[in-house]
Amino acid sequence: MTLPFALNIPYIAVALLILLGLYAVIFKRNLIKIVIGITLIESGVNMFLITLGYRKGSIAPIYTSSPGGIMALPVPQALTLTSIVIGVAVLALMLSLVIHLYRHYNTLDVRKIGGGKE
Amino acid sequence: MNIYEILLTNSPALIVAIPLLGAFLTPLISRINGKLRNLFAISVLGLTGFFIFWLAANIFIGKETFSYVFGGVETSTVIRIIFEVDALSIFMAIIAIILAFVGTVYSWAFMKDNTGLDKYYTLILLMTTGMLGMVLTGDMFNFFVFLEITSISSCALIAFRTNQGFAIDAGFKYIVISAIGALFVLFAIALLYSQYNALNMAVLANAIKYDFVDKIALVLLVGALAMKAGIVPMHMWLPDAYGRAPAPISLILVGVTQASLYGVLRVVFTVYGGISEILKVNAYLSLGTIVVILAIATMLVGVIMALKQFDFKRMIAYAAVAEIGFMILAIGTGLYLVGVGSLGADMAFKGGVFHIINDALDIGLLFLVAGSVYYATKETSLDKMGGLARNMKYTTIFFIIGLLAVAGMPPMNGFASKLIIYESIYQASPLLSIVAILSSIMLLAVFVKVFHSAFLGPAIPKFKNVKEAPKSMLLAMLLIACLIIFFGLFPDFIINNIVEPATNVLTGGVLS
Predict the structure, then answer these.
(1) Residue B80 contacts residue B70 (beta carbons within 8 Å)
(2) CA of B378: which chain A residue's CA is closest?
(3) Which residues of chain B have a CB within 8 Å of the CB of A79?
């Protein structure tokens, strides 16, 4: 028997991940930590999508040679895959910008970046 | 079925597919010849534009909606993506393609001394693909995907001049804002999916109940998209991004922010357009009031910050913030008027939608003028400019056209839409009209100051040998200037044939 609370654990984890990510983006001064914050938010949202499609005791939605029983909903999983791919592109772009910023300003502190000749 | 009908029924897919394929062919063609690549990019956008105008003619004259199904046509198939093209979608697509086309023509001379141009043109085509996809799609998740494509490519273009630290800084700010905004859009989409097991906008509109979870999703969607549209207090990335990107990119970025604004309209009027009448009145009253307050803040912050800028492009960027304020002021007042049951709502929406295209042209022209001045003098600070009208007479004329249009002076298009906005918001409160007119006057003051300090005054020895901008840049500015004057002289024609069908898409769900 599953307690109702146990079913909610994934959603609590989602909320914690997103809040943690937002905290890092808003309050951290290090560019790398801001990037980490964004990936945390992304993981939270992806986990939310996966959790939505999950039913207790379900199996992976592969039709060929399926042993029978309930299947998890494949649509959120497809959405999550797309979202992960996009996330990788955004992450790569952000990190490459961080590298360039470090080359120009020799620091990763947001307070010291952005000045210079306009 | 003959070839014309086949092309027409497939055109919603072709509009997105042509620039996408063109984007990945560009680096290959770039290996042959630089000029050939520029021609290729322009012709790809031209072909896309041809399909858009063809489809637009059918939609505006035939008054029908085109839909295109990717994947299974049978209703039993669960996973499929539908493009639904109505008058509002194609209206936004026209804006996007005009800006992208003009920006690419302008880039020919403007960017010719830069390296890495194969990537530049690839990214412009990808950005266009993203914008067109955002406005044509009828699927929430697909909207998110195109939103991300647009964000990634426009971020790379903002930070295109990697030898300038501040350009990379602007790019980083932009990608942080975009990534967080897009993730919250995805979160809201997931909430809606968990409620109704659907991603299609039309299906969601039929199913929507407007309960607590739906309200959270609405707040997340409108908040995140408003952040991407640059509405105060979430505008801080916009002056950096607009001001530090190359001028043609600033021009196309105007289209990107407007595509986000389109997202707000789509969510509020289509996805949440299916809720019951009583709930709708409440929802529209509260949403309308909030939007009007944000709009006033956006206009005032925009013009006041523009007044104290010394950097030419940064000043125009703040003016762009103020112009966004005008659009959402009209839309917010329209929502409020629907809420109180007034008939003037239709007029307010019309003014707001008409102002979207006018703002794109006016602010776009000013960015191009600032780009030409930079190209000729290598100067961005207004303090160091002066007497440029002696050497750059065509650019000066285009600047005057842009100045009058942004300030809402009679022969230009800005006057037509702003007059409708003043008139319609007067019905909600005369005070709103006063604030709007005041902002317009302050915009005039901002640009008259620029005109005086950059173009008039004694000749400065340093700029003695300054030459007029090259032909491709003048051609790009001429294209926009002609559209501005045409829209200003025949506003009736534009409103009746293009703006009204687009507005009916919004109000069709509201007033009927």
Answers:
(1) yes
(2) A118
(3) 141, 190, 193
User: Is the per-residue pLDDT at B408 higher than 90?
Assistant: no
| A100–B183 C-beta distance less than 8 A | no
User: In the prediction, which pLDDT does A97 show?
Assistant: 94
**B81 chain-A contacts, CB cut-off 8 A:** none
Q: CA-to-CA distance for B423 and B441, rounded, in angstroms?
A: 16
- Each residue's pLDDT tens digit, B9-41: 889 999 999 999 999 999 999 999 889 999 999
Question: What is the torsional sign of CA B57, B62, B65, B66?
Answer: negative
Q: What are the pLDDT digits (tens) for A43-82?
A: 999 999 988 887 777 777 777 777 777 777 788 888 999 9
pLDDT for residue B73: 65
Contacts of B437 (CB under 8 A, 6+ apart): B422
Contacts of B194 in chain A (CB under 8 A): 52
Tell me, what's the pLDDT at B353?
93
A101·B311 Cβ contact <8 A: no
Which two tokens mark B345?
Answer: 């709502």
What value does the mean pLDDT take over residues B432-459? 90
Q: Does residue B501 fall inside a structural domain?
A: yes
Work out how many CB contacts closer than 8 A connect A with B.
Answer: 87
Residue B90 belongs to some domain of the structure:
no
Supply the ipTM of this predicted assembly.
Answer: 0.92
Task: Name the pLDDT band for B299 (thresholds 50, 70, 90).
Answer: very high
Q: What is the pLDDT of residue B252?
A: 94
From A39's Cα to the closest Cα of chain B, the distance in A is 9
Domains annotated on chain A, with CATH: 4-60+68-112 (1.10.287.3510)
Whether the predicted pLDDT of A118 surpasses 50: no
Give the domain extent around B339.
278-512
CB within 8 Å: B381 and A31:
no
Residues of chain A with Cβ-Cβ distance to B190 below 8 Å are: 45, 48-49, 52, 76, 79
Residue A98 with chain B: CB contacts under 8 Å = 172
Confirm whether B399 is domain-assigned: yes
Q: How many domains does chain B have?
A: 1
Q: What are phi and psi of B85, to 5 degrees?
A: -110, 110
3-state DSSP call for residue A68? coil
Residue from B109, B228, B248 nearest B180 by CA? B228
Q: How far is it, in rounded angstroms, from Cα B400 to Cα B366?
A: 9
